[in-house]
Amino acid sequence: MTHMDARITKAVIPAAGLGTRFLPATKATPKEMLPVVDKPAIQYVVEEAVAAGLSDVLMVTGRNKRPLEDHFDRNYELEEALARKGDASRLARVRESSDLATMHYVRQGDPRGLGHAVLCAEPHVGDQPFAVLLGDDLIDPRDPLLARMIAVRARYGGSVVALMEVDPGQIHLYGSAAIVPTGEGDVVRVTGLVEKPEVGQAPSSFAVIGRYVLDPAVFGVLAKTGPGRGGEIQLTDALRELAQREGEGGPVHGVVFTGRRYDTGDRADYLRAIVRLACEREDLGPDFRTWLRTYVATEMEA
């Protein structure tokens, strides 16, 4: 079986960041555990992986990330208390996270960038293709981006990145992709990548967002990749090399995503995500939308 034919079952979720933009909330609580309505952000990401058929999840963690492991583990004392009370609904929700997937954990150690975090996954992933999901990007389950990326890799081989067109004035915040069309409306060939380009130097306004489907050849490239932008080992730099290959881990394609994405790594976008998701909930939405309309109307009159 070739790497192109191999079924993708493993997901890697880098979760070693310090979450400094959310201090002091993240002083003792991992940013991945911040709630989005009533679930931690990281659970949405694991649910997305599972929905795409990835039942084996490796989290690349760092210091003070033990709550992540606890969240996806059983809590027998809490479960017994809820069972004694006959609270079947909350009991099911508590058990939901521990029954999602087979979870594994590895420490990154030194925070040397996303590329290094991915490289830490090599002993677990081995020589199989795999997905990488960044916890700051929440993709609405009604827009199955990851499943589409897996299908694109099955057709073209190599690696696949998720792309989203952004305001040219914001592209310096992302990795930027040079692209050419393929004939499929939402699929492009990536010919080059620049991590957080200087203003006016971006090859396009198509930004790499936090979903990747990677050929295992990326590990060999990352092992030889030196520090790049910000003094860190950048996954973008390794993908730029793979984009020049036919076979041996290449080429690189992009899926252009136009669906619903919530950036929980930014405070304002985090709040917007909570409002949007709360409004759409059947149990919370009607009352919350009524309150929100009244609140907005009052603010506009002030």
3D architecture notes:
The protein is α/β, with parallel strands linked by helices and 302 residues long. It folds into 2 domains: 254 residues, Spore Coat Polysaccharide Biosynthesis Protein SpsA, Chain A (Alpha-Beta Complex); 37 residues, no CATH class. It contains 11 helices and 13 strands. The protein has a 5-stranded mixed beta barrel with strand order 8-11-9-10-12. Strand 2 and strand 3 form a beta hairpin. The longest helix has 17 residues. It is globular. The mean pLDDT is 90.
Number of helix segments?
A: 11
Task: Give the strand content.
Answer: 15-25%
Task: Quote the average pLDDT.
Answer: 90
C-alpha Rg (nearest Å)? 20 Å
The end-to-end span amounts to 66 Å
As for the CATH topology of the largest domain, it is Spore Coat Polysaccharide Biosynthesis Protein SpsA, Chain A
Unreliable spans are none
What's the CATH class label of the largest domain? Alpha Beta
CATH homologous superfamily assignment of the largest domain: Spore Coat Polysaccharide Biosynthesis Protein SpsA, Chain A
Domain Nucleotidyl transferase: 10-275
Catalytic activity: alpha-D-glucose 1-phosphate + UTP + H(+) = UDP-alpha-D-glucose + diphosphate
GO molecular function, one term: UTP:glucose-1-phosphate uridylyltransferase activity
Enzyme class: transferase
Keywords, please?
alpha/beta, 23% strand, two-stranded antiparallel ribbon, nucleotidyltransferase, Spore Coat Polysaccharide Biosynthesis Protein SpsA, Chain A, NTP_transferase_dom, 2 domains, 11 helices, 302 residues, 5-stranded mixed beta barrel, globular
